[in-house]
UniProtKB/TrEMBL annotation, chains A, B, C, D:
Name of the protein this chain belongs to: Peptidase M20
A Pfam family annotated for this UniProt entry: Peptidase_M20
Domain Peptidase M20 dimerisation: from-to ranges: 234-322
Swiss-Prot/TrEMBL keywords: Manganese, Metal-binding
Key word Manganese present: yes
SUPFAM superfamilies with a match to the protein in the record: Bacterial exopeptidase dimerisation domain, Zn-dependent exopeptidases
Length: 434, 434, 434, 434
């Protein structure tokens, strides 16, 4: 297939890609709760030649990390029912078995490709002001407490676009194609469970990517990425004793103060001289009322490091500081690890491949050898598994200007990135799988 | 009426007092949301000769402080509807016009007595374990998030007992009797609104009191109390900018960190050399998720001081520290005063009165001249108003052992205190109003 | 002796009292280093009929608390030598055996009086500006690092004035008179060692007092005082590991950060609902240089409580927080108790005595029944011992306006308080010992 | 000159290099106080054909940053006098004009080489235990409060070795040779003042280097280095109001608490997503005594960033936090910038040069293309100036195992690095200057 042809297909896909992205944006669901999202993806692909896997076929049950509380799961499940997702479909998914794998086998000799697109949203209330395009153009999230503020709506749309291309041109292709719509990437919770299910075990070529991250133009892509940060996600609780804050403050054991002090102590963990570190306490809920010494506090936190070892340093420091705060405030603590991610590296060969296949593309006009991520991505588990088994992998960056940074309540991107991403993947497939 | 008679009446009231207290305990409602509670009190007194006032007759609308959020008000209002409180009754109360005043005029010359009983509960989840008597004896709070952990269920029951005595023996009494069932004492939010409505303006004798506080035996009462702490209740918010905690932590403006730091700064306000101070941040809700720099934080806090001036010192320090934290974390802050209480002093004459009228009582067998409160009580506004208008006032302490301190989730008291309190009030009425 | 006579003697003593005070002010020396001060007192009394005790006769060696470092002791000792204090005199005192006891026995039947005057200064650099009277009138401290900022120069002068009166009028008096010039009151370090030496064991009447504290006029005295705070003085060290702050910050164990965090943790110890508490970290020396992770930190701190039990609460909280900080920063800590003080109460009989003996005084024209101290005073050990042995004791307050509060670098008082204090003591002696 | 010859010369220099290093180690002096050190260097070179510059000839007076306090300067100056440094020599240097430049002009056509060796020590008390080689072999620092804990004694010795080589073989060489013995590298205070004096303005080849940093073997060198961190050094003071910590704590304005809080706030400055940052408060001196609210605090601190821009972010955050802390504690602050360093990059050509000239060397047996520094080095100012003027520059790393990390009190290195470093510089000179 010629580059003129892939240019043409990419152009034709532009409108559907934007439609898919916007419809997905409106049904934003947080990790392990992507019930409507999974059904939406299923509906788009059910009439293709892909074989679709959902529920326990997608993830290894015990390897899932950071499942939501029952009440949150119920909220999303009920919402999906009300939105018309069939009971039979939900029965397979309920309890956090979201995500989908789509498989296409040409039955012809050729490489086994796998592609991964993450599909979950974030617990952020989306901006409603008119400067925010999803608001002004009417595709803002319907679920007040969840928002696609990291571009996974775009990722999922790219996955749909790629699937439609593969379906349409399957007779011109060789090898096998596995498209993974992964749940619960935020918090590094989902990829490991997909890996443990075995989906990456016999893959020859594994490709994934992210839109945005750096402030690049649409049409620019990075062929490899570095600095995926290793990470550990933890939930921390402090439990003390309540008392009347005026009458007997000294009889209380103040879990709220412990959480505040712990947050600052964690934030002050010494930087590491040999690489990047991150620490974030992203949520605190503590205490019952203003005149009561708070007897309970809950914190969501995470550490990161530029290597798995540096992240381990952060975790060790964090745990000691949590224990010390509990001692200082004479309260009890629990620390649960609810997510974990490792570091990973793209294979260098993709620099040449991407440059070569993009020649003549109207969608990809500039290729950077590499770009840094500087964040965590549980795709690292997939890359590691593919490489361990002898396959080759890369994680691309698809350039797009951003209205606001990732995880901002007015995050948005230029939808021109969607056909550009599909175009790159198509051209690689044409090169390697024809 | 003889002391033998009041002893007998008190004994007869013991069973109803316990029944009222336990039924009130089960329908615990937080301040300005006492819809079921007010209806319960109304039901107990509607067939007496008391004239009952509810809704806007009880409180001055604008003087109410610290009203709950709409959604909380809705929750309690709907719950009251479901529990069978008539719509017509609720119509008068809705929007936080809870509480009731019961008035009895003998039309005979005599003093105007006023009594105040506070009726609100706290936002505490009650202990369910079997060592907690309300749990083991089946009268634990039905509303998971509210609990009578300060004894106001007992106070309201005492008020009902007193009312029934007055109703039954009204022909033997002189003067006027006003019983105030005050909403929203917790947080020092309700008394001022009752005062502003004028209920205390022509009162000759004002009596109120609290059960517990100190570890005294049932039968011991303190005739006067000191050290009611002046207090200010504040809601604080911090607003910053969210960002991806791994990718662009430096682009965030971290409101969650500001709240944690502010809490510790507030807690560290220097003690005052001339009297007691208190500071409590009793609630923090901050941030959205672990990998997002938190852009919003909410705190409920309070200051106290043994004099109004010392409390003013605390407020001044607190506000400066809130502003400084906002500067440090480059976030915006708002500080709203949602409750305020002053200091007040019992009139000394009550020491002799209480001692004298308790002679021969089987219920009050030990009278302390005074006891310290060491907490805030918005009854101080009522005492101040009565004294300003030339009346005399005291705030009693009714002894009872406590299973756990006030505001503890397993707070409980010896119900023997209920007839003791009613007995004291009866004996004073017999002395002064016969 | 008539009140006219004591008025006259007091007037005559005014000039010498001011002279003594100013000369003592100039040679301010910190606790256990009062070498010049002791010699100065000795010189003033050596030609009287008092028997003078110095060195190990004054204090029980092992009961002395909080001795200074060798180098500080050397500094003051050498300075005393240079200032002309004879070697023979210093030989008895060196190693921190400062202070003096002056004893006068009339050999006539009568009560055994003991009076205590504290003589030490504080490690404060005195204000040099012209608004500060000691500076403008030329009697500012010669020792840059020590200053009489608590009025002990005045106390010692009052003691000298009293001694001169007793010496001159001894033939008119009965009983025995012991005047204790106590070292090291600041930090509650010296009184216990005097008590342990036995000086208070057979005392009938013990009187001491303090100038200032409250903003009272000269001529006003409080006959009894309350609220002497129990206290514990501690030295804390943290020891970690230094490292290059740019290159290997993560290899350091940061003792400086531990000290900073510990200071805030200590400052935030929850207030006690039943009485006053205090906490102060008054000195921190930590770290070596800006680009080195600090491996050592030293802190001087103290706790106080309105009762010995409440102070014990503070000490317990403090020690747990020090241990927790060491855990948090992975450093070692040591905590040494270097001073301790208890609570004490004046005997009530002194209210009447002071009122009575002050009638007709030109120097004491207003007597308050009581005043609060709100600080610590190791005189409490002396009061306790005297009372235990059957004697009677009071601690007076001598009114004087203050230019600035106690321990301020521009602290100063109205010297009119000096003859007023001597006058009161004289009149009591005349009443009880004639 | 052949590599055999430079091998031989290097071997002959080994003993003198060790002797120089150990003698310099014993007279460790902190920045701008290197009086004995400068004289020592002068003595070693005064009989060579180098022209020696000292005093104001070396540094631009106003460009010197972070001069020590007068009393510290006096201490080192007097010590130098007592150690026998001639008055005439010291007269030129006093007031912080330390360091020396040695110049040799062959008068033959050829490049102008400049070499820089830093000569200052750190304010660290050296380890005295027998595991510390300088202690066990008797060359521990004589000045208790200063120590060569960063290897500048080795640097200066290498400079002397290089100078002796140049002097001996000057007839075989072409061009000009400037050897800069730079004062006050620690704290990034000295290099800029040398640059401002013009010493780097017409240099063709500029070479400097550091021993240690990474754990490399003797004989390994890195031909270029990256990641010299930009840095800003600041002194911060807080001034409040003292008061009696028991009596009137609320009247104090606590500068000591401000310093503690500020230290933690600074330590918690959010990490930057785009590069390395560092923050260190390395010294705190605050307060006067335990029972006094501290009215003064002094802090030495520094920020660093992997780029000048990232360091600027740290400085901006730091200054805002210092101001906010002053507001929070109601105290005054001053912030003085006392040192500053920029980033710089080695020229890439040196990778090939070093590899080539080291062939056949018995001292340099492994060449790394590059190594990271990860710390600040004010040599960056020199590199920048040379490159701006068209010259070429590199900063080498000379491998040596370290007993303990840089700035540790038991820092030590393998002296085998000394002839290796001289050997490399010799071979480059032979290559470029023959």
């Amino acid at each position: 297939m010629s580059v003129e042809k892939t240019n043409q297909v990419s152009a034709e896909l532009t409108h559907p890609l934007i439609k898919w992205r916007r419809e997905l944006h409106q049904i934003a669901e947080i990790g392990w709760c992507e019930y409507q999202t999974t059904y939406y993806l299923y509906e788009q692909l059910k009439d293709t030649s892909f074989k679709l896997y959902t529920g326990e076929d997608v993830v290894a049950k015990e390897a899932r990390m950071g499942l939501p509380k029952q009440e949150v799961d119920d909220l999303y499940l009920n919402r999906a029912k009300k939105a018309g997702v069939p009971e039979a479909f939900l029965t397979k998914l309920k309890g956090g078995f979201t995500g989908m794998v789509a498989e296409l086998d040409t039955k012809r000799e050729g490489p086994h490709f796998a592609f991964r697109f993450d599909i979950d949203a974030l617990p952020i209330k989306e901006e409603k002001g008119k400067e925010h395009k999803p608001a002004s153009e009417g595709f803002v999230s319907k679920h007040g407490e969840a928002m696609h503020a990291c571009g996974h709506d775009g990722h999922a749309a790219i996955g749909l676009g790629l699937a439609h291309f593969l379906d349409e041109y399957k007779d011109h292709l060789n090898g096998r194609y596995t498209i993974i719509f992964q749940p619960a990437e935020e918090g590094s919770r989902g990829a490991k469970a997909v890996v443990e299910k075995g989906w990456l075990d016999d893959v020859d070529i594994f490709l994934s990517g992210h839109i945005g991250i750096h402030d690049l133009s649409v049409g620019t892509v990075a062929a490899t990425t570095t600095d995926i940060l290793a990470t550990t996600k933890m939930d921390v609780t402090f439990d003390g004793v309540s008392s009347h804050a005026g009458l007997k403050p000294h009889e209380g054991k103040n879990a709220l103060l412990a959480a505040a002090a712990c947050t600052l102590e964690l934030n002050g963990i010494t930087r590491h001289g040999e690489g990047a570190t991150r620490i974030n306490v992203g949520k605190i809920v503590a205490g019952a009322g203003r005149n009561i010494v708070g007897d309970h506090a809950f914190m969501e936190m995470e550490t990161r490091g530029s290597t798995t070892e540096i992240n381990r340093y952060m975790v060790k420091e964090a745990i000691r500081k949590i224990e010390a705060t509990a001692l200082s405030y004479d309260v009890k603590q629990t620390t649960d690890i609810v997510g974990e991610g490792i570091s990973a590296h793209s294979d260098q060969e993709w620099i040449e491949v991407v440059k070569q296949v993009s020649q003549g593309s109207r969608f990809v006009n500039k290729v950077l050898d590499e770009a840094t991520i500087g964040a965590s991505e549980d795709v690292a588990y997939m890359i590691e598994r593919v490489q361990q088994k002898g396959g080759s992998a890369s994680f691309f960056l698809y350039g797009t200007p951003l209205a606001n940074g990732h995880h901002h309540k007015a995050f948005d991107f230029d939808e021109g990135v969607l056909p550009a991403a599909v175009n790159l993947l198509m051209n690689i497939i044409v090169e390697k799988g024809c």
